[in-house]
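Async update (no meeting this week)

Hi team, since we skipped the sync, here's where things stand on the single-chain job. The sequence we agreed to prioritize is pasted below, unchanged from the tracker. I ran it this morning and attached the output directly underneath so nobody has to dig for it. Comments welcome in thread, and please keep replies under the output.
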Amino acid sequence: MPTLRLLADVEKELKETKIKYEMRSERSDDPPSVILSIAKEAGFDCIALGSRGVGGAKAWLLGSVSSKVVSEATCPVIVTK
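Output:
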């Protein structure tokens, strides 16, 4: 399923719940820093992000976006696969 369609489906469900949210799409060489910076500046209560499931040696060598966000965020983080 294309990413934009998936986001549109999720956004439709979020609107129905009346939960305040912000969806963003950013490009960066350092995604964890961008996610953490946006969450801090906006005063987010929670961060929700997906995990690509890169594991093993590759994750160890490159680091994991979700792992870094979880370890450095000042608010709760929900990681989904």
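Quick observations from my side:
Residues 27-81 form a domain with the Rossmann fold fold (CATH 3.40.50.620).
The longest strand covers residues 47-50.
Reply here if anything looks off.
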